[in-house]
Write a structure and sequence with these properties.
Blueprint: H1 2-19, E1 25-29, E2 34-35, H2 37-45, E3 49-54, H3 59-72, E4 77-86, H4 90-97, H5 103-109, H6 116-130, E5 134-138, H7 141-150, H8 178-186, H9 194-213, E6 218-225, H10 235-242, E7 248-256, E8 272-277
Parallel strand pairs: 3-6, 3-7, 4-5, 4-6, 7-8
Antiparallel strand pairs: 1-2, 1-8
């Protein structure tokens, strides 16, 4: 009987300790079921393309990008790519990954995001260390801004020599896709119909450069803002239009106050949804 009492006390102490844990994140599948990191990793390793959607200032997303990259590199040959680097800056990215220039010199050749040092330099450094090709997939911001102001037709005026940094024209576009419709609603009408077109030209261009640089025996991991691949739209929609047989695993990042159950709005957002505690500190 004494041993039984000791066992009950041990269970009570253990339950208190467990209830006081404060997890930083929880992974769910599309239907809203909790899954493990290793389940997500297993599915990623079997894909042709992984679209890793992040919240740009979320440290958990950036940490998991590096964690999955380390683990996947042991399982598959890889090619990497990212929204955060624009196609006309590919030479600078190549020079850095090849070890020919340092990060200071990189900043003179590449339009770096303000959070590059904390959030994206580790990805480039991983590619550099492991000699993995890293693709700058995004459209140069100048042309995305032109579309925002003038619509797709303005791209016809771009000199042919610069069109190599843009998805082939004309751009296929479905204005009825919920993601593009929601952009207009969230913007309160500002930007009009051209706002989602500017998003679409980014999506189409990133998909174009993913496919252009994808190798059959390698897993292509692409890092982008989660909205570019949420609900299997955006980049994924353009990829599937070109090759419906692609095995694409998408990851979305969202925030909630309660990690025990995924909120309805986040279900079906991606193959895997990383729900992060809403109180998590930001990288900027």
């Amino acid at each position: 009987m004494k041993k039984f009492h000791i066992f009950l006390i041990f269970l009570w102490i253990s339950s208190i300790g467990y209830s006081q844990n404060k997890p930083a994140y929880q992974i769910f599948n599309a239907s809203g079921k909790k899954v493990t990191y290793h389940k997500m990793l297993k599915e990623m390793s079997k894909a042709d393309i992984v679209l890793f959607g992040e919240l740009h200032n979320n440290p958990i997303a950036h940490w998991l990008q590096i964690a999955t990259l380390n683990d996947l590199n042991e399982k598959r040959l890889l090619t990497l790519g990212a929204e955060m680097f624009e196609a006309d800056n590919q030479h600078g990215v190549d020079e850095y990954v090849a070890g020919k220039i340092n990060s200071k010199e990189l900043g003179t050749l590449v339009r770096l995001w303000n959070n590059f040092s904390t959030d994206y330099k580790p990805l480039l450094d991983f590619a550099k260390k492991n000699q993995i090709k890293f693709i700058a997939t995004n459209i140069p911001r100048t042309y995305a801004n032109l579309v925002y102001k003038n619509g797709f037709q303005v791209l016809d005026t771009v000199p042919m020599i610069y069109k190599k940094w843009i998805a082939p024209l004309p751009i296929e576009y479905d204005a009825t896709l919920p993601g593009y419709q929601n952009m207009i609603k969230m913007a309160g009408g500002h930007g009009g119909d051209n706002l989602p077109k500017a998003q679409a030209i980014k999506d189409a261009t990133m998909a174009h450069f993913i496919l252009q640089n994808r190798e059959k025996d390698k897993l292509f991991i692409h890092y982008n803002g989660t909205y570019h691949s949420d609900f299997f739209e955006g980049i994924g929609w353009y990829l599937k239009r070109k090759d419906s047989n692609l095995n694409i695993v998408t990851i979305a990042t969202s925030e909630q106050e309660n990690l025990n159950k995924i909120e309805k709005d986040h279900k079906n957002k991606a193959t895997f949804i990383i729900i992060v505690d809403a109180e998590m500190t930001k990288t900027y």
